[in-house]
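Troubleshooting log. The previous structure file for this entry was overwritten by mistake, so regenerating from the original sequence record. Sequence copied from the archived sheet and checked twice against the printout by T.R.
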Amino acid sequence: MGDACPICDKHRGLGRLVGPVIFADDLVVVTHRPLTEGSPVPGYLFVESRRHAPTLADLSDEEAAAAGWAARRAAAALRGELAPEYVFSAITGRTVAHFHQHVFARPKGTPPQTHWFDVDTWAAGPRVDERGLSALCARLATYFDPRP
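Regenerated output below.
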């Protein structure tokens, strides 16, 4: 897929979607959203299939199991490290045809009028810089060890 898929490129360390890797194996990759995309909000993760597969239905059973395991670990990690009001997860797949699941925190104190999928618009919400993001991702990574 390469040039035609920004997530395949991301897995090779190329393009604007490259963010800190929290966990990776032969089946899935878990990353934090780069600070250059949206607002620099801590706790916005992606679980992606390593192999180019457009949707959840295109994953093998083994890949789907690995994605489920990684999404659960990601949610537990966010809850453990950020103590958010809620951790959301969604698979939309309308922008990039490569399986990716969003797992993201809704910080405590988020105003009720802030949509569940848009904590970026909460101007008073928590923000993170490169150093803080690196430290957060190192802590999040501990929730992925060991993999069964």
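The chain is about 25% helix and 20% strand. Archived copy saved in two places this time.
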